[in-house]
Design goal:
CATH topology of one domain: Penicillin V Acylase, Chain A
Number of strands: 16
Structural class: alpha+beta
Order of helices and strands: HEEEHHHHHHEEHEEEEHHHEEEEHHEEEH
Number of helices: 14
CATH superfamily of one domain: Penicillin V Acylase, Chain A
CATH class of one domain: Alpha Beta
CATH architecture of one domain: 4-Layer Sandwich
Largest sheet: 10 strands, mixed
Strand content: 15-25%
Low-confidence stretches: 1-16, 129-133
Mean pLDDT: 93
Distance between the termini: 31 Å
């Protein structure tokens, strides 16, 4: 009886367990929250790639057909050879461990390596060859301190891309969680077959989301540079403190003009980046970023006439921050991110591919895919453990 009582005490004291996975493959596990697949991959980078491919091989094959064959080749009229050339050139400069993930995926997914390399470059292909600078209309805001009533920092992020990302690609977005033998557990939002991302968070509570910034930083894309968003994923895998992550951001020049919005447990920052310079800014408890540089040190005239209304979107987010000062919780942030531009927010309902609200201190992520999946909460901390 004493042993049974002790066992019951231990079970009650144990942390909450995840539901049983839908599928397992070579140590990797597939879960689902709402309509979103969550891949938890463990081991070496090659092993994690094999797990990725084995867990959702059908989905990867379907996404290549929908995105590359039907959308980019047939509808966008982008030559396959041009996509191969662009993606192969970018992938050739990837760190070996990220290459190993894709090599492993090619062994178990039933999709050839050259096709996977194209899928891995799908975000870059959209910006550079599909609709150019028209592709980016992203927004990000963060609140902490007095703006949250001294609750935990909350960051919101809208990935507003081309309309077809929202209308055609939504079923293929996944949460991919890497738990490598030699790094920090890291989660990214990735389309099927994609291994890096414009959005991610690690187990140290460092969150980032990328916005395009061509109108401020120019469209220069040096080909002898590492592609920056894969570098950001390696930063999450490598660094378990913000000072080291911050140093990496300041040390590595981007290959494109980005605004990288980063949140920790207690403060948020925007890194405004061109291929030749990086400037970091923050706020006094509230920060908003869209698609143009806002740091006055650039000495740039705000592009009020831009078609994407970048300046006006940022101003409207700042106004919402003041309106709800002291009341901004994760739930309030979701409502702010849901507010369309025409109603005083920053969202383009017809272009918003996905929306995220993150609370780094709690390793918590909420995700929404407009017209496909309403807001769902994903406790990343449970998967990181």
């Amino acid at each position: 009886m004493k042993k049974i009582a002790l066992l019951l005490i231990c079970l009650l004291a144990a942390p909450s367990a995840l539901a049983a996975p839908l599928k397992a493959f070579e140590g990797g596990k597939l879960y689902r929250s709402g309509k979103i697949d969550i891949l938890v991959l463990e081991g070496t980078y090659k092993e994690m790639g094999r797990q990725y491919g084995g867990l959702i091989q059908k989905k990867i094959r379907q996404f290549y057909q929908i995105a590359i064959e039907e959308r980019f080749i047939r509808k966008q009229k982008i030559p396959l050879e041009l996509m191969k050339q662009f993606s192969a050139g970018a992938f050739a400069l990837y760190p070996k461990r990220l290459k190993d993930i894709l090599y492993g995926m090619s062994e178990t997914s039933g999709v050839a390596l050259d096709k996977l390399i194209i899928l891995e470059s799908i975000l870059g292909l959209t910006f550079l060859h599909a609709e150019g600078a028209k592709a980016g209309h992203c927004s990000a805001i963060a609140a902490w301190g007095a703006y949250t009533g001294n609750g935990p920092l909350v960051m919101g992020r809208n990935y507003d891309s081309t309309a077809f990302f929202k209308e055609e690609f939504a079923p293929y977005l996944n949460v991919v969680i890497y738990k490598p033998t030699d790094g920090v557990p890291t989660a990214v939002l990735a389309y099927a077959g994609e291994i890096t991302s414009f959005t991610g968070m690690n187990a140290a509570g460092i969150f980032y989301g990328d916005n395009e910034a061509v109108k401020s930083g120019g469209a220069d894309t040096p080909t002898d540079r590492l592609v920056f968003y894969p570098s950001e994923v390696t930063f999450l895998l490598d660094f378990d403190t913000f000072p080291s992550f911050d140093a990496a951001m300041k040390t590595n020049l981007a290959n494109f003009s980005f605004i990288v919005n980063v949140a920790t447990q207690d403060q948020a920052y925007s890194y405004e980046m061109t291929p030749s310079a990086t400037r970091r800014r923050t706020g006094a408890g509230f920060l908003a970023a869209t698609n143009d540089f806002a740091d006055p040190a650039w000495n740039m005239k705000p592009p009020y006439d831009a078609a994407d209304k970048s300046v006006q979107r940022r101003e409207q987010l700042l106004a919402l921050g003041e309106k709800y000062k002291g009341q901004i919780t994760a739930k309030r942030m979701m409502a702010i991110m849901d507010t369309p531009f025409v109603e005083g927010g920053a969202t383009w309902p017809e272009r918003t591919a996905y929306q995220v609200v993150a609370v780094p201190a709690e390793k918590m992520l909420w995700l929404k895919l407009r017209d496909y999946q309403d807001w769902i909460g994903i406790e990343l901390g449970e998967y990181f453990r």
